[in-house]
Design a protein that fits this description.
This protein has 4 domains: 2-127, Response regulator (Rossmann fold, 3-Layer(aba) Sandwich); 145-321, P-loop containing nucleotide triphosphate hydrolases (Rossmann fold); 328-377 and 387-393, Orthogonal Bundle (Helicase, Ruva Protein, domain 3), CATH 1.10.8.60; 409-503, no CATH class. The protein is globular and about 60 Å long. The termini are far apart. A hairpin with a 2-residue loop joins strand 6 and strand 7 (134-136). By secondary structure, it is an alpha/beta fold. It has helices spanning 11-23, 34-43, 60-70, 85-93, 106-122, 159-171, 188-197, 219-224, 241-244, 260-272, 298-303, 309-315, 332-347, 356-364, 370-384, 397-400, 417-430, 443-472, 477-483, 488-503, and strands spanning 2-7, 26-31, 48-52, 76-80, 98-101, 129-131, 134-136, 145-147, 178-181, 206-210, 225-226, 238-239, 249-253, 274-275, 284-285, 289-294, 318-321, 353-354, 389-390. The strands form 5 sheets. It has an 8-stranded mixed β-sheet with strand order 6-7-8-10-13-16-9-17. The chain is built from 20 helices and 19 strands. The longest helix is centred in the last third of the chain and has 30 residues, at 443-472.
């Protein structure tokens, strides 16, 4: 019987995972802090460790380093929130086998843990993880995705989505570059895949690159490739993602996150359809179609100097704007049933639909995570449902209690102008904007856009953290602020900010 150590301060989640893995013939040990986890590790060496990134007494990175000092051969899988993907990539550099994102689906974790144990036994590297019909390598450095040609995207009945469908029909047969704009989780990559599937390049590769996950140091190598010996650590020749896509389509997600230097090199590729590997001395001809996506308006980013205008104009041969789910409520149940059918197939379930109460909650909820959040909610609910119909008891906390999470705007008066300035500075830091380098005439524009960018990028992450803290503090806002390591007034600011986002 294989031994599994779970380190997580969420008691309910631990018990759920313990029951699940015990049924699958694992000997499970539960600990609720990093300190207790290390003590258990020294007493009883497990075959694998499942560890939450955020613990009360430490974080996943520090704990991972300590675990690897004690038992370097034991695979560690990190549990992380969606907003912490970049942190998860960082811990993988310190030896984590893989990461799983919340909400958790035990069957998927089971596959990951079995793969980790088998890899440790054989001394082999982890295989690429499979998720949502695409093959992804979760190493932080290999973010290319080759799309499964059988993946099809569905469209709702709203006028907005019918307009998108018509735009796709127009642009797909051409070789035009396309900019897709929309909030995180709204389905930009799926639309890019569908454009590729409807194009003359449909039998060629579709390579998706998450520019937000590319480090500044390695971005050029990942995109353009490098020659052996071109820099320290370049032990072998590497074919870049753009070259791998030759003949097909490249999807550059969160394109505005690329550094200025990489943007300059990318401009040459777009203009000349040629690339040169890092350290190389010859050009390589490229025949690729480029689709880019951003959860902010690229033109706005160009106006404040975060994105090259000439590159924007090269990409902007055609543009598609994807509306957030809250603006097309008629589509919610269409997508919900689609995701339910997929969940039934993946989980071997026979759930037929949703109760009227659940449908009503779905229709009034704001869905800050858009389609990605809806898909995760449906899959989780299908897993937990013991009946033919998903009822309210299977829904996550934030949906059932969404009315309790509407914060009182009157308390915002307690926030000071100083804190607002600190929050704005934090926004600029998150966007990698050097405020000292921005011309004075553009400061007002930055102030306006930084708020928009924070909403579109991290509102779901902040919301998740606030909800988690409120649950642990039994809705005592002062205690929740302490858990979040902010003062009470800052927490109120964030609450009010979430309200404004929901009202849009």
């Amino acid at each position: 019987m294989k031994k599994l150590l779970i380190i997580d301060d969420d008691m309910d989640m631990c018990l759920l995972l313990e029951r699940f893995f015990t049924r699958h013939q694992f000997e499970v040990k539960l600990t609720h802090s990093g300190k207790k986890g290390l003590e258990e590790l020294e007493r009883n060496k497990p075959d694998a460790i499942l560890c939450d990134f955020r613990l009360g007494d430490t974080d996943g990175k520090e704990l991972l380093i300590q675990i690897k000092q004690v038992t370097p051969e034991v695979p560690v899988i990190i549990i992380t929130g969606y907003s912490e993907i970049k942190m998860a990539v960082e811990v993988m550099k310190h030896g984590a086998f893989d990461y799983v994102t919340k909400p958790l689906f035990p069957e998927e974790i089971l596959i990951t843990i079995k793969t980790a144990i088998a890899s440790a036994a054989n001394g082999t590297a982890p295989e690429p993880s499979v998720s949502n019909g695409t093959v992804r390598t979760r190493t932080g450095n290999a973010n290319a995705v080759k799309a499964d040609k059988n993946v099809k995207y569905i469209f709702g009945e709203s006028r907005e989505f019918k307009d998108i469908l018509r735009q796709m029909d127009l642009v797909a047969p051409t070789n035009y570059s396309v900019i897709i704009s929309g909030e995180s989780g709204s389905g930009k990559e799926a639309i890019a895949q569908e454009i590729h599937a409807r194009s003359k390049r449909s039998q060629a590769p579709f390579i998706a690159i998450d520019c937000g996950a590319l480090s500044k140091e390695l971005a050029a190598s990942e995109l353009f490739g490098h020659e052996k010996g071109s820099f320290t650590g370049a032990l072998n020749q590497k074919i870049g993602s753009l070259e791998l896509a030759n003949g097909g389509t490249v999807f550059l997600d969160e394109i505005a996150n690329l550094s200025y230097d990489v943007q300059v090199s990318l401009l040459r590729v777009v203009q000349e359809r040629k690339l040169r590997r890092v350290g190389g001395n010859k050009d390589i001809d490229l025949d690729i179609r480029i689709i880019v996506a951003s959860n902010e308006l690229l033109w706005d980013a160009a106006k404040i100097g975060r994105f090259r205008e000439d590159l924007y104009y090269r990409f902007n041969e055609f543009s598609i704007t994807v509306p957030p789910l809250r603006e097309r409520r008629n589509d919610i149940m269409t997508f919900a049933h689609f995701f339910l059918n997929k969940s039934n197939a993946e989980l071997d379930k026979q759930v037929k639909g949703f109760s009227p109460e659940v449908e009503q909650i779905f229709k009034v909820y704001k869905w800050p995570g858009n389609l990605r959040e809806l898909k995760n909610v449906v899959k989780r609910s299908a897993l937990l449902s013991g009946a033919d119909i998903i009822d309210v008891t299977a829904l996550p906390f934030e949906l059932v209690n969404h009315k309790r999470l509407v914060f009182d705007p009157a308390t915002e008066e307690e926030a000071t102008a100083e804190e607002n300035a600190i929050n704005l500075a934090a926004n600029l830091t998150e966007q990698n904007v050097d405020s000292s380098a921005v011309p004075a005439a553009q400061v007002e524009e930055i102030n306006r856009l930084s708020k928009h960018t924070l909403k579109s990028i991290s509102i779901d992450a902040e919301y998740e953290m606030i909800v988690d803290a409120l649950k642990k503090a039994n809705f005592n806002k002062s205690k929740a602020a302490k858990l979040l390591n902010v003062d009470r007034k800052t927490l109120y600011n964030k609450m009010k900010q979430y309200n404004e986002f929901n009202e849009q």
